[in-house]
Amino acid sequence: MDCIICGKQVVNENNRLQKKVKDYLRTTSELDVKHRWIKQWKICYGCSESYTNDHLVGNSEVLQKIEEQKKRKKQLGKALRHKREQEPLAELRAYYIEKYIDYATCKAEQKGQHIAKPPPLKNSRQYDAAYIAYVKSSKSTAVSIVRNLVKDIDTKGKWIDVRHVEKRFLSHSDGDFSFIIVELFSRKQKPSYPKKMAEETNSDYKNRIAYITWQTATADIHHQRTQGIQGDVYIVLPCLKNEQESMYEKHYIVWDHSHLQFKRVRESNQYVNILKSPIWRYEIVAAKQINHQQLRYIEKNLYQIIGKTHKKSAVTLSIFSPQKKKGAASKLKKELKGERDRKN
Fold it and tell me: Are residues 58 and 143 in the same domain?
């Protein structure tokens, strides 16, 4: 709304203006012209201070200013109608489309950037720092992958202890792993779960149960390790894939004549292609059980193995096995050939 006298915007001043009306109503039950105009947002705060009710009623100066404002609005209305009848220049549309594609693509990327982020841990004060760090770490994601997605590993009645998890080289996501090494222990200690409290939400109760499970697992695994018990060791090769990779959706952009701007609509013959928001899922490329001698070899040569994953986009299980030297292999071939020649 604009002031009918000076043309200044009134909406931003409505709190101060309405206070004037309330103060006036405390003294009288009926509004005069001035305060009725204030209530209807017809005049701004400055004009309400400058003019009394008597000046606003039948004052030639005020009437002249009101007429001038009406003429300005009429001229402005004509100019706007003329603009609305004209289509925007092709350069303006191209500039807007370029900016819109950047904006929409950025929004799509933001929408799909959280790949396997665990749910927020509410009321985190009741948990210790070690558990909070575990929930936020990549180890909790690795445990979830092994427990829920790897069909070749039976985790029923087992604790999953992550020995090593390696992020994929040059990947932008912390949840994109090149390989995971886990050790499975039998559940010798059983967690004791309390009943849900009346004031607890379902998510709070699930968090409390998960915390108790983590405490029991941590204590049980530590106790078994101190007794020299070794669990079954597995290598898991997960692959993070975007189900909507290189897929686009149509955004229909048209010129809105009434508001003099571009806007997005449901249907039109004018559209732009916007990359779809990523939908991420894990695929298990391979999973293999290894013995503890092989595990010691991997841990001893971990940096060399990680270096090999940097050179290969597709990681295979072969990089975790000792590689035979070319010289030794050729020497073995010569010895075998010599034996065959002597026999002949």
Answer: no
Quote the tokens at residue 23: 């103060």
pTM more than 0.70: no
At which of 232, 265, 290 does a domain end? 232
- Say if residue 101 is exposed, middle or buried (CB neighbours under 10 Å; 0-12, 13-18, 19+): middle
Query: Mind listing the pLDDT tens digit for each residue in 210-260?
Result: 999 999 999 999 999 999 999 999 999 999 998 888 899 999 998 887 777
Same-domain pairing of 249 and 200: no
Q: Burial letters for 318-327: b for 16+ Cβ neighbours within 10 Å, e otherwise?
A: ebbeeeeeee
Q: What 3-state class would DSSP assign to 248? A: strand
CA distance 59 to 283: 81
The full DSSP string for 176-214 is -EEEEEEEEEE--S---PPPPPTT--HHHHHHHHHHHHH
Helix (H) or strand (E) holding 219: helix 202-226
Q: Cα–Cα distances in Å, from 232 out to 136, 183, 186? A: 26, 5, 10
Indicate the helix (H) or strand (E) that contains 233: strand 232-242
Q: Which two tokens stand for residue 304?
A: 């060399």
Q: Note whether residue 290 is domain-resident.
A: no
pLDDT digits (tens, 9 = 90+) for 264-300: 999 888 899 999 988 889 999 999 999 999 999 999 9
The pair of three-digit structure tokens given for residue 186, joined into one six-digit string: 């039998």
**Is there a contact between 64 and 58 (Cβ–Cβ < 8 Å)?**
no
